[in-house]
Amino acid sequence: MHKGWSPANVAGAHRIRALRRSFFLALCLTAAAATAQPLDNTLARRDATAWLNKIHRAAQRENYVGTLIYQRGSVMHASRIQHYSDLVNNEYERLETLDGKPREVLRQNDVVHSLIPEAKLVVVEKQEAKDRFPALLATNKSDVLDIYDMRKLPGERVAGVECEVFSLDPHDAARYAVRLWAEKNSGLLMRAQTLGEGGKVLEQVAFSQVDIGVPSEKQRILAAIKSSKSWNHYEVTNQPANIADEGWSIGIPVKGFLKIREVRRPLGELRAPQANPRGNVFEVLQVVYSDGLTGLSVFIEPVSEQRVRREGVASLGATQVVVRRVADFWITVVGEVPPATVRQFASAVEYKPPKAH
Q1: Residue 178 belongs to what domain range?
Q2: Which of 16, 248, 316, 325 could disulfide-link 243, Cβ–Cβ 3.0 to 4.6 Å?
Q3: Which residues does the UniProt record annotate as the domain MucB/RseB C-terminal (predicted)?
């Protein structure tokens, strides 16, 4: 017999293996029992509303610096974010891309400066909505909890901080489920996932590293905005529009979506030759819809030889696109919603040429 292996040793080894098997079996039974328990973890409406508002408010009022990781389908990229708020709730934000070409976005309240260094170009635009991560709610005109149930899930750690975890489950198949991780104390959103069928993650954005409650460095952001004044500037101006006056009607085919705004806006590729910083820019009508948590846009543009289009569908992660032709116009519907919802909105667009006055 091999040295060290006595009958007592063999019996001891069998007992250890039996104990391990018993422990593993107990774990499995415990997990199965926990899964089988019909726990109702749906939050009361008042508590759910309080958490949604806390998450949204934290994005605007907390000082935080961190690294964001975006994943859309198989595409991933990272950005560095700095955000500061003062005593009267002015916001200052800097977002820098860490992959691909250098890009920088500087924001003071609702004025956004997008810097394109290789072209020495600054694109200035007013930001209509404040729903970009880590902010959450697209509008206060629709009650999210009329169309989603909010459930509380077991807490987890994200980016080194303890988080409360929530699931927003839609009442219908016209929108995706959303999962949220919020830092326990401040409510700052640490991770957000858009979920498709079977809980598949279609899209997510998360902090991989974050510091909350840091001292404000808003002066650096203001200095960066000032120092870019010597670059070429192009100001994006969105003009209010009334699509009905131009012969368009769009019925809302999906319950819970509301029309947020109608604008005429420039769209296209901005370049920075000295004589023509606008580049290949054209104007389109845009109608924005939202259910309070997610949204979609309908773009209407005239058919043009300069811009080749064709009817079809496309998707990337949670984002779906439908293009169809109506009379001498291209209709493009883009939204972070299921394909059927985008198709319904595209089919709801109708055109009757306005009568000449």
Answers
A1: 45-221
A2: 248
A3: 244-350
